[in-house]
Design goal:
Layout lengths: L1 H17 L7 E5 L8 H20 L8 E5 L6 H13 L6 E2 L4 H13 L4 E3 L14 E3 L4 H4 L1 H10 L5 E7 L3 H16 L3 E8 L7 H9 L4 E5 L2 H13 L5 E4 L9 H4 L7 E4 L8 H14 L5 H23 L7 H14 L2 E3 L2 E5 L5 E3 L3 E7 L5 E5 L2
Helix pairs in contact: 2-12, 3-4, 12-13
Bound molecules: (3S)-3-methyl-2-oxopentanoic acid.
Amino acid sequence: MKRISALMVSLAVLSVAHAQNVPSPIPIGIAVAQTSNTALLGQEQVVGTQLAEKYFYARGGVNGTPIKLIYQDAAGDPNTAINAFTALINQSKVVGIVGPTLSTQAFAADPIADRAKVPVLAPSNTAKGIPQIGEFIARVSAPVALVAPNAVRAALKLNPKIKKVAVMYAQNDTFATSETGTFQETAKALGLDVVTVQKFQTTDNDFTTQVTSVLSSGVELVIISGLANDGGNLIKQLRQLGYKGVIVGGNGLNTANMFPVCGKLCDGVLIAQAYNPSVNNTSNKAFVEAYRAQYKKDPPQFSAQAFTAVQVFVEALKAVDKKKKLSTMSIEDAREALNAQILVGKYRTPLGEVLFDKEGEILQKSFYVAQIKMIDDKNGKYIFLR
Ligand code: 1QQ
């Protein structure tokens, strides 16, 4: 009996000794899509976080302690996101996670972080209900309900005669299903007739059936909710089969990586934006300058949002560290303090001034719409209309 209790005491001592404090550099997890079709979107997020790591390193990190970003490829499926989150939480012992890329993945992976009490900043999860997944889940990516309607209004400005609308969406993607709901409500609220709703899969390449239905419905506006590869092919086939009206693309089509898919036929597509490179604040100017120096063009929305997510972590960590040195805190305590701090802070970011409500929903002031202008078969740019 005595022996057993002595053993238990020494085990307890051992586990106390093993309770790890926050190390230097401070590990932050990045779980976005580095492979799969979703990498068309995720690559831009990787770039945004890399710029942030460099930027904050040069500015002394967290009150003198550097951060270190740890990448786990979350690819494009719910399961791959779960694996990436699990590795970051249990093996890398990160203080927080930026990711995953898709809402479909977030609904699967975020509950795991929430149960482990690890704060998540969603860099691009715009479906309804993301912050409500749990106490530890917040997002820097404004919801479709606020962003998407702007593109429909812009389409009407471009062609005030629009009356009939076709809506197309990827039914196997939670975000696309959420976004199409917003698009359909917006169209109706603006007095438009949604005359056909066409469904597809993000894995589809051939859209002849859907496009044929759209063409026979005689619409002046087509609104697409899908991802970059399917969305690009759909735009291409709409034009090739003779559709001449306005096209609005949703957030899943919001990347220059779609340009080689639809080529010159991407020209003219309208896409709502939660970021505008010309936002006039110090944080955005520094971000744009750093991005331009490396990539010779303006940064896209997904890079700006990913940068912002890292920035929010860094600034919230600084505030926590000022109250109690992070190096004296266990990782578990630091994660909880960080989560609480994120929600009470105010951040000057490339997206403008950012705050969160008590559920972790981003409070962002301005949204924009851009139109694609193709230069050649592969390259183009976004012209901001508002
Ligand atoms: C979501 C999205 C993606 C299409 C962005 C990458 O907005 O899944 O919520």
